[in-house]
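ugh ok fine here u go
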Amino acid sequence: MVKRNGLWKLTQLRALMKNIQALIINGEDAHQSEYSTEHDQRRCFISGFRGSYGTVIVMQDAALLWTDGRYYTQAMSELDPPEAWTLMREGLLDTPTIPAWLVAHLPPKSIVGADANLISYTEWARLHTNLTAAGHCLIALPENLVDKVWGDEQPPPTANTIIAHPLQYSGQTAGDKIKLCRDAMEENGATVLVITALDAIAYLLNLRGSDIPFNPVFFAYVVLTLKKVHIFVDTSRLSHEAVEQLQNENVNPVFHAYEEIHSFMKELASSCSDQDKIWISNKSSYALHADCGEVKKNTDITPISVMKSIKNNVEIEGMRASHVRDSAALVKYFAWLEDKIKNTKECITEISGATRLEKFRQEQDLFVGLSFSTISSVGPHGAVIHYSPTAETDVPITDEELYLCDSGAQYKDGTTDVTRTLHFGKPTDFERECFTRVFKGQCRLSTMIFPTKTKGNYLDTLARESLWSVGLDYLHGTGHGVGSYLNVHEEPIGISWKPHPDDPGLQPGMFLSNEPGYYEDGKFGIRLENIELVVTKKTPHNHKNRGFLTFETVTLVPIQTSLLDVSMLTDKEIEYLNNYHAKCLQVLKPFLQGPDNAQALEWLERQTLPISR
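structure:
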């Protein structure tokens, strides 16, 4: 039997590239999801790289991976075979963009191929513009060449049961959400709204699924007209409760097979008049945009993107409550872990620690599952920003190195994501300095007061200021939106050095992460992450009646004060931390009563003691 290693895969793929000079491969599905099923992990299959972000270019004499600072270290260890691949470190000043590199390296009048279902309209347009200007041609391939190489070993698509998300957690009926969409359609002169993002579909219909690991979504499309709701899904997957809830929430859909979306869109487009306009986000696939033909289009983000980002009162209270229960689980874990490391000889590893943390979460009310694979990382592994321990990399958690734990969960009433970095022994002075600067950045951002609808991009430097002042930095964003029992990374809002072009501006009811960090390759990683709720802030003045906002921290897990260099903190920062810890103790104490929780309560009380200079 032929060994299907990385070189074999590249050789087979190149043999299929008879009429094209370059092939573009990404790891997204037809809905441009951030995380994908095993069936859709074509980038991983051909390159070995398992990260959630990146684009591959394969030519006859070159194979390259573009990815960002979260994955530099990981990619270097996973690309297979390493000598066949070139890592393009996106975000560094000397790294060309994909179009620029192609233009510089393609032979004259080259053909570049891609699967148009797996590339967004925005990205396709960018590539097409640059390649055409240089005399090249970008074409949509009739079949996916990676799938042909993968063959029978490609995992099948997932198709799990779709369940109801009740009003007690959603806070608004699907019928009311659809009405808001139609109001927006009429305001924008659109007669059709095409919804392809899976979290937007789950939110709109108040349904949830499990087709993609950690994300409670399901494969489907929705097309709204001013009179009808068309849902493209295998109806056998809908639970009885899901069907009943749609009816009760005033949704009477026309169902179609999932695979019929393209033929439906082509037929719909052919029947449109000059007055019709199709609203389809530029984040949707180029293939679906092509189906629209010459019909006028609105390519803005769908109204659902902003609707789901601004949580209603029921969702807000659910998010608060889920974070309290989740924080209690983390306190139990860190107390248990510290005791095991300091007082027993039992070996706790990255994997066994993450497994125990998941058990503590499973004990909490309304727990559904994890919101992503737990990043349980010791020492040098902490510098791999999205590290996930495996049997081959698993190491003990000890009192000799920093331990970074980034984890989260899905509850029926909310989604969580929290990172803490701890040291159970004696950290170095440099580790304490870096930890303190990371905390200072988190504090600075958390306490900022800013005008309503300020773009998250404008706040990013606040979290980096203390690090930048001494020549340090981190190569990931500072914050991302968080869904309500939805995706842990929720577009279109975020706080990053990279602008979010569709960011509507921060508004009350939005939840974002606040997670500065610092990473020393080969040595350690530090990250502190809280989830923040955007709330109104009363100020002495109100310029132009714009209104001002600030953040309310809903994560309630102590920050390890023994890792802080208190001499570097201002009075305001000390007051902030003492007040935060007092709230952690007050809110969590009722959840940690009884003999079974004595260890956790003692740890919480000790970790929340006030600090002073």
